[in-house]
Every structure is written in structure tokens, then in C-alpha cells.
Amino acid sequence: MVDLISQYQKIKPAVDAAITGVMETAQFINGPEVKSFQSELETYLGVKHVIPCANGTDALQIALMALGLKPGDEVITPSFTFIATTEVVALLGLKPIFVDVDVDTFCIDPSLIEASITPNTKAIVPVHLYGQASNMEEIMAIAEKHNLHVIEDNAQAIGSDYHLAGGDVKTGSIGHVGCTSFFPSKNLGCYGDGGAIFTNDDQLAAEMRMIVNHGQSKRYYHDRVGVNSRLDSIQAAVLRIKLRELDNYIEARRKVADYYDNFFAQFPGIKTPVRGKESRHVFHQYTLTLEGIDRNDLNAYLAEKEIPSMIYYPVPAHKQEMFASFGSASTELPVTDWLTERVLSLPIHTEMEEEQLVFICESIAEFINVHA
């Protein structure tokens, strides 16, 4: 689904030198590379504060911890997402309230949010899924009306521009807090685990900086319960190099998406990703919605041809066993359930060549022609 080896070869001299530099200084934790990456990412995102951490799941958990929510408080979130988004809600003793997604964008449907708000609702966690931004203007308006916190799960859309009336801003900088993952396959990925939290709120930033470092603002003085979640210097060094390439990586992905879009336009049973007018799709995934085409058979057919394809996600969060105690399996999310049976993601990455795209597309065409 991604070709990290070829990508590495193109930046190998810079990466190798950066890693060697960390080894020679032996400042492996919170070294100069971490501080420099933090500053550079703040500039790129246009936010006041970036707090690096160990991974994207931690980023979400730390953001929720900093808001001071109490067990039983409710957090509105989509079910059609990677499990980390909702897992951290339950981990902290909070209650996930699942809301359906928009069939075109795959992101939480703002028109359904208000009906799920109760006196116990404290936060909304929109997910910018597959690289497509949620409708943040509507979500922020709802949050302001009901005095709710908004935490953006930006793990799949870092680098996306959101078009506000006053000008473009980066996703992850619109809500009260933004979170991302630097998992290797992400558009901005490191060579291990890593994550970060963003905010323009000075007080929230101070809280999150304490939480990531055992709850201490001064060494050995612990003001609150925290965690140990830090981005190591080697990963920061790699991320500094890849951050400089991020916009180029995004454009390479968008060109692959253009190729797929043009090819699949001839097939009425294939719905290609919608590019919402509110933002720039950065295509962490290229996800088809299939109608009248057996998704699982196509997935298996492509595997036989050694073409990777993935189902993101076969079981939505509200039907996962881990949430059984919330009774969420009975929640009616018709669009989510419909999508889980029909979505299929194709390879998309920065190093794809036209020969590969031709092979993938013609293989899918062969399958459709045989099974039509």
C-alpha cells in the first residue's frame, strides 16, 4: 500500500546524516532535534504550540486528559474510524456517543450531531478520514453553541488546507486541540512510532506538556497524574527532513488520485472519493465505494495478482466487542454500516509509477468485465 523503501532512497543522504548526528550527540530524548521539529511543525501548521509525544493514540488520550473530563462524560465521535479514536474515550472512563458519517466524505455528519448532545456531552472528536477534512465550520459552530470542546483527529490529513472565510488554515489547527500520528505509513511518517498534539490555547498547552512528562512542570515536582509519552530524537530528526517534503508528497498522492479518478469514471458501480469544496484532500488513502461489485471478491482477486488492497474498516467501532458494555451495537448508523460492506482502498503513495497504476486499474477492469 506504501513504498517506504523507495521513498527512503530519495532522502537517504539527509536521513542518514541526521540519524548519525543524533547518535554522535547521544541526546536521544528531548534533544535539539525534537525542539527543532516542534518549532518547524508549529510554523508549518500555523499554531502556537506543538507538543510531540510517543504516538497518535497517546496524542488523543493526552488531549482528553487535559480537558479535565470526568468519568461518565460523553464524547461525540464517528464509529467509522480507526479504533484508537474511540478506544481512548473508553480508556479514560468516558462514554463514546457514536454519530453517523456523510456518505460522500466518510467524515462525521454535522447535521446529526446536535441530536446526540445531552447535558453530559463535553466534547466532539471529528476524524479527517482518508485525508478528507470534516466540515469544521459547522462543527465549530455547534461546539460554540453548546460550549463543547473539539479535538481534531488529524492523523490521516496532516497538511490539508481548510478553506475558511478568512483564508486557508491547516486541519488540526481549527479545533481546540488537534492530534496526529507519525506512524510510518502516514503522509508525514517517521521510522517507528510518534505523534503530536497542537493547540493555540496557552493553558491547554501547559497542561499537555505536563501530562506527556509524568505530570511535572518542574523536574521531580508532579502537579497532576500524567504519562510517559515522548517523541525520541531520532524520529524527530527523520520527521524534520520529511516535513520539508510533505507538500511534495501530497501533490504526488493527488496525481495518483487523479489517475484513478479518470480511469474509474467509466464504471457506474465505482464511486471514487469525493473532494469536498471545504478543503484540499491529501489522500492518505484512496478509497472506492463499490455498488453492485462484490468487494470481498475483488479484494481476493487483487491479492491473487499480488496487488495490495485494504478494507478500512471492516467492523465499525460501535460493533466492536470492546464497546459491548456501552450497548452501542444497537446504535443505528445506517451509512456507517453500508460503507463497511462496500469500501476498498487501493495503493497510493509518493513513489507510484504509471506502469503500476495501469496494472492495478486494468486488473480491476478485468474483474468487473468478467463478473458483470
Structure notes:
It is built from ten helices and 14 strands. With 372 residues, the chain is α/β, with parallel strands linked by helices. The protein has two domains: 4-100 and 107-241, Aspartate Aminotransferase, domain 2; 246-371, Alpha-Beta Complex (Aspartate Aminotransferase, domain 1), CATH 3.90.1150.10. It is globular and about 70 Å long. The relative contact order is 0.16. The model has no long low-confidence stretch (mean pLDDT 96).
- Number of DSSP helices? 10
CATH class of the largest domain: Alpha Beta
Strand order of the largest sheet: 1-9-8-5-4-2-3
Helix/strand order, N-terminal first: HHEHEHEEHEEEEEHEEHEEHHEH
Q: C-alpha Rg, in Å?
A: 21 Å
Characterize the main sheet.
Answer: 7 strands, mixed
Strand content: 15-25%
Instruction: List how many beta strands DSSP finds.
Output: 14
CATH architecture of the largest domain: 3-Layer(aba) Sandwich
What is the domain tally? 2
Q: Could you say which overall geometry the principal axes of the C-alpha atoms support? A: globular
Round the mean pLDDT to the nearest integer and report it: 96
- Report the uncertain regions: none
Tell me the name of the CATH homologous superfamily of the largest domain. Type I PLP-dependent aspartate aminotransferase-like (Major domain)
Helix content range of the residues, please?
25-40%
End-to-end Cα distance: 27 Å
Helices and strands: which structural class?
alpha/beta
CATH topology of the largest domain: Aspartate Aminotransferase, domain 2
